[in-house]
Write a sequence for this structure.
């Protein structure tokens, strides 16, 4: 089992560039507004966009260096207040570079709070972990009753298209969703020298696929009504909508409690995102009563 990840912020030195940002989204008669934005270092957002109207803000999280080096810690805090709704994404991939020997750890810490009757769609583009990186990432989503969350995480270990595989280094990831303090979903992985071969190559692991991802959507049934109202027919539809998969990927989706969870193993981060976006477009209509609106930045 993955040990708890430290969330301390690295001190600023001449060869590190830590960054943190705190975002607060509030709802008023004017719709959802970015009521607080505090940042340190190269991590910030532009003004919100409203392609769906004033009640649903779209934000692009910007990290101009576009990469995380040894000693860096990125800390992101998002608070979505009651009745607010937002979609947050990134304009490009996050790159985790080769670690230095003297101060190897590279960290990303994400702390999200979604309050009552609020919605957050958290869709960062993929994370590319270079060979010899030493990366620790933790994402904690705290939800309240009647709130909704849609999110995904896509990771490329090494650069498989260039045949630069993840043969050395460490990768630790923990992703947890809680509702009213009770854990509803958890995904974690810890790759190091002692278990790398088993996790990356075995049938019970990643089966030699270097790109993996998962998506989580829910709750889709806050009233705890009969399971048959949603799961069987909706799952059939979701599975029928899977894009054609060749031998270069494996894709699945299921329902765990009130959450839909999809998974991808394959050779293309873009392919993973296409699968996840297709499922999101179906589930969003059921969960939020809105058609999916993909951010323009995904197509630039």
């Amino acid at each position: 089992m993955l040990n708890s990840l430290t969330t301390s912020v690295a001190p600023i030195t001449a060869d590190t560039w830590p960054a943190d940002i705190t975002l607060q989204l509030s709802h008023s008669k004017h719709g959802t507004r970015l009521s607080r934005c505090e940042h340190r270092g190269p991590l910030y957002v532009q003004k919100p966009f409203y392609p769906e109207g004033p009640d649903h803000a779209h934000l692009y999280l910007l990290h101009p260096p576009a990469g995380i080096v040894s000693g860096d810690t990125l800390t992101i805090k998002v608070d979505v207040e009651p009745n607010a709704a937002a979609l947050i994404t990134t304009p490009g991939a996050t790159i985790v570079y080769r670690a230095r020997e003297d101060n190897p750890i590279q960290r990303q810490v994400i702390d999200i709070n979604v309050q009552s009757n609020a919605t957050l769609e958290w869709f960062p583009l993929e994370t590319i972990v270079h060979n010899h990186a030493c990366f620790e990432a933790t994402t904690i989503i705290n939800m309240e009753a009647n709130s909704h969350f849609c999110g995904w995480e896509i990771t490329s270990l090494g650069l498989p298209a260039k045949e630069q595989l993840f043969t050395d280094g460490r990768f630790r990831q923990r992703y947890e969703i809680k509702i009213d303090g009770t854990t509803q979903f958890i995904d974690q992985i810890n790759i190091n020298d002692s278990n790398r071969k088993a996790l990356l190559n075995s049938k019970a692991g990643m089966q030699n696929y270097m790109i993996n991802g998962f998506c989580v959507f829910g709750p889709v049934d806050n009233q705890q009504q009969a399971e048959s109202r949603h799961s069987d027919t909706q799952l059939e539809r979701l599975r029928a909508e899977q894009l054609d998969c060749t031998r270069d990927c494996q894709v699945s989706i299921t329902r765990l409690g009130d959450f839909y969870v999809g998974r991808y193993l394959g050779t293309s981060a873009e392919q993973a995102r296409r699968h996840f976006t297709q499922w999101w477009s179906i589930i969003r209509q059921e969960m939020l009563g809105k058609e999916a609106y993909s951010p323009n930045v995904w197509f630039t």
